[in-house]
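In this section we walk through a basic example: taking a raw amino acid sequence and producing a predicted 3D structure, encoded as discrete structure tokens. The instruction is simple. Fold the sequence below.
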Amino acid sequence: MKRPVIALLLSGLILPGLGQLYLGRRNKGIALIMAVNLLLLAALFFVMKIASPVIGAHLAGTPLTPALILQQLQPYNFWAKLLLAAVFGLWGFGVVDLFSAFKERDDVAHN
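The resulting token sequence is shown next.
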């Protein structure tokens, strides 16, 4: 028998989708893991897109100031917030999905 607490810890603290895989919900677990990885890859793209001009300016001898860093961050402000909301939304979906799986399993066990 699979323990729900372990599934919840896997999805809630480590990576969304791991709890689903642990419970045997393979398709949903793989889909969640792939979606989270795509979002993390997009976040890495944004970090590199923002960091490359800052690093280039530093290598060229321009002093790094908070104003320079904020100037590079400003165009991506909306997309960064949207990406962060998507990651947390997906994480929350993974946890809520586990609760629904636990409820389905309890309903089947009581009938």
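Looking at the output, two observations stand out. The CA atoms of residues 41 and 60 lie 28 Å apart. The longest helix spans residues 26-59. In the next section we compare this with other chains.
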